[in-house]
């Protein structure tokens, strides 16, 4: 015989209510914006590469006008595998190719324009550089990304609805003809003077409405459900407001995309993000290894030094962002020897700096938890000298920390401030003059919820 269900008593009802209220108020059960698994995986790549190659390479330009002759596109020794191996040697996990830049020239034989490799001498007019690039990346284990410029200074219909149909047709070609695409890159260069099919005029567009970005991005996700979309407004990856490769000292992966417009967003806001923002759009710091984005012989002596590349790494990856480093092939179709050597040196220095975690045998413990701060201790197996610390949050649980400090125990038992900061996120690298200690205290002075810190790492690069 079934038992008769009991009516809940007032006491039991109050108990349930008290439990629910307690859980909802607990700092370790927060209502935080969280990243998607794909965003977490992307951030773990840390460094990706950009390949700017096209008509500009052969005209010694940065931005082509749109009237360039396809006959000039004729690399003598193009080797996409050389690009991939150079990027891989530097530790990059993905490469992004400029399939079409602002001049409108397409590196694949698009069915929708004559302004492409099919009308160039490259591979006797039978070439498809996008295919060669994608195959080279996959052969050597790199993910494939593509850039399709929204602005087209060659297309006669730019500025009209007809161009949007053209643009989406080309997006469909790229996202259906070349296998899995990890990232599609949309930038904010929109409108101005150009060739426009011979019109030779200036055309301006409404950046907020012309492209109907929601529909274009929905198409990209329909064609490639796993693709990550980059733009000023994400939705997956965002620009950080500069092309120096620097994220802000305070850098949140969370932001409000309702305040963002592709091509017209507040650079400072992009470079900072927003604590507790409703959208997780991780930051990508784009910068070129040379002063320009395309190759120029005059810049062969201006390739960034290893020290400059390390500084960029610490201000991008070391500030909770992903580094996107541009590697422009020369007219031969090869990344220049100077650039390749610099990439190799850069990787060697990173491996030397971060090869041995001096805290790997230490004990990391949560000692005290207050209402407004949290304290952790890192106890080493012995006193060690170090000149940098790597802090990290479990970002799958959200980004929480907004202020922290690190102290070391002195011989007299007193604590001395070593370094302090604001945000941590996926990774925060802090450097300082070498110190020696066995015990470190990490205090989180402010957080959106109970911190989810991972064990710190210590290194000595000096």
What features would you highlight for this structure?
462 residues, alpha/beta, eight-stranded parallel β-barrel, six-stranded antiparallel beta sheet, disordered N terminus
Brief description of this entry?
Helix content is 24%, strand content 25%. It is of the alpha/beta class.
Q: Explain this structure to me?
A:
- This protein is α/β, with parallel strands linked by helices and 462 residues long.
- 24% of the residues lie in helices and 25% in strands.
- The protein is built from 10 helices and 18 strands.
- The longest helix is centred in the C-terminal third of the chain and has 17 residues, at 337-353.
- The radius of gyration is 26 Å and the shape is globular.
- Residues 1-27 have low confidence and may be disordered.
């Amino acid at each position: 015989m079934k038992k008769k269900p009991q009516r809940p008593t007032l006491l039991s009802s109050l108990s349930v209510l008290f439990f629910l209220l307690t859980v909802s108020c607990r700092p370790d059960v927060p209502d935080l914006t969280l990243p998607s698994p794909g965003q977490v995986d992307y951030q773990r790549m840390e460094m990706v590469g950009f390949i700017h190659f096209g008509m500009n390479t052969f005209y010694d330009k940065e931005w082509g006008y749109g009237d360039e002759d396809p006959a000039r596109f004729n690399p003598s020794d193009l080797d996409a595998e050389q690009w991939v191996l150079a990027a891989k040697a530097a530790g990059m996990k993905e490469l992004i190719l400029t399939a079409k830049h602002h001049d409108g020239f397409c590196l694949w034989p698009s069915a929708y324009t004559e302004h492409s490799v099919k009308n160039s001498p490259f591979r006797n007019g039978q070439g498809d550089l996008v295919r060669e690039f994608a195959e080279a990346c996959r052969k050597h284990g790199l993910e494939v990304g593509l850039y399709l410029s929204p602005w087209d200074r060659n297309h006669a219909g730019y500025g009209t609805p007809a161009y949007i149909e053209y643009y989406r047709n080309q997006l469909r070609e790229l996202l259906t003809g070349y296998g899995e695409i990890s990232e599609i890159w949309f930038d904010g260069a929109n409108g101005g003077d150009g060739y426009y099919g011979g019109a030779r005029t200036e055309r301006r567009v409404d950046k907020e409405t012309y492209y109907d970005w929601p529909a274009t991005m929905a198409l990209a996700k329909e064609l490639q459900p796993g693709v990550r979309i980059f733009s000023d407004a994400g939705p997956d990856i965002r620009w950080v407001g500069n092309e120096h490769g620097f994220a802000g000292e305070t850098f949140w992966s969370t932001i409000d995309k309702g305040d963002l417009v592709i091509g017209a967003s507040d650079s400072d806001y992009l470079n900072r993000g927003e604590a507790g923002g409703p959208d997780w759009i991780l930051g990508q710091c784009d910068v070129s290894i040379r002063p320009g984005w395309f190759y120029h012989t005059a810049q062969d002596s201006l390739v960034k030094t290893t020290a400059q590349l390390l500084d960029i790494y610490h201000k991008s990856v070391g500030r909770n962002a992903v580094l996107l480093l541009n590697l422009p092939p020369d007219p031969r179709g090869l990344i220049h020897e100077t650039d390749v050597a610099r990439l190799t040196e850069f990787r060697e220095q990173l491996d030397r700096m971060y090869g041995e975690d001096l805290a790997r045998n230490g004990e990391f413990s949560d000692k005290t938890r207050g209402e407004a701060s949290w304290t952790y201790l890192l106890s080493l197996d012995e006193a060690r000298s170090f000149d940098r610390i790597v802090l990290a949050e479990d970002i799958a649980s959200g980004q929480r920390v907004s202020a922290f400090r690190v102290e070391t125990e002195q011989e007299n038992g007193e604590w001395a401030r070593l370094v302090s900061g604001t945000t941590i996120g996926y990774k925060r690298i802090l450097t300082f003059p070498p110190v020696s200690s066995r015990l470190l205290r990490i205090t989180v002075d402010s957080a959106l919820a109970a911190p989810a810190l991972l064990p710190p790492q210590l290194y000595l690069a000096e």
